[in-house]
Amino acid sequence: MLDDLARQHERLNTALESTPTEIWRNQYHPDLSPIGWHYAHCHFIEAVWLRERILGHAPPRTRDWHDLYFPELSPKWRRGGRLPALDRLIPWGRELQFRHRDWLARHAGILDHPLMANEYLTGFLAQHHAMHLETLAQVRWFARLRGPDPALSEPHLQAPEITSQSWLEWDAVHATVGGDDVLVFDNEKGVHGKELAPFAIRRDPVTNGEWQAFMQEAGYHRPELWSREGWDWRKAHDIQAPLGWRGSGTDIGLQVLPEGMVQRNADAPVVGISRFEAEAFARWAGARLPHEHEWEHAQREGSLRGTGRVWEWCGNPFAPYPGFRPFPYDEYSAPWFDGRHYVLRGGSDWSDPLLKRPSMRNFFTPEKRHVFAGVRLARTMEP
User: Per the confidence metrics, is the pTM higher than 0.85?
Assistant: First the structure.
């Protein structure tokens, strides 16, 4: 776990040090904080857990730390201007990284704490940082989307990917879902059984080429394919294509990704779609979104292909598993069991391997397009 944490530390350092100085304080999307804030927040959270909650130390300067780096105390739009200078932030972060890893390796007051059983807290912090690093990729994406279109760069061309439209089918089945590994979060904890009706699920995610066909058949302009809420959202925001697409019609076109402008590969999984769009596509294709339990069963038993390329929207809202208990703090999952957040599974090209286990549950409201999401189709089978 310490090796995993050290790897995330170095990824954080690289992410900030490679960010152009003119953008590290900027907010490019209402849901996304500046890159520098994410860097500082990750180190602040380590300090809170280790210094304050385990060792019982008082915060050194509450106003500078808690009022800025606790998300609930600091509106996103205010964060960039309150950050320390970059030449102070990076040395501060590296100093805390060294100190915290040393404490996690040898400090008796920390190692004897119940949260350190099986290195739980070390793994929790590593995953926390991995999630923020994926968010940093989303910030870079919007920084590119807000700027002039960059020139197409040869090194960023996507390699072809062979896919098919084959399906995996199950009769009614007793599925086992959830996880008991030390890394699992509270919302995925607890292995339990679920009875699933007969279903089929696509072996591969929906591709750019398939999405192009949806657009050519006026999928964005046919209200019968959309939920009422989704259609109102599409019209209000004039949504015409996945986030970052350049060109449409019969032209395969280009797309902007966090790394820059790329040629859009027809066989690559579509990315940058909301759940509203995923649902409309599924209706157009004569299918539906999979329930997350169908997805997890198929991933464990049927070798889904293409997982970990895009987060895949599921059909069900984010809800607690039987016996759910908040851990290690009340606010990680429980506030989002509100019927408005929906589950995504699988991980993306910008997710760390720590976050790509079969039981991992991501969750967002259905209009979000910046979360590196795509879709895999499912169908209900006749019993």
Answer: yes
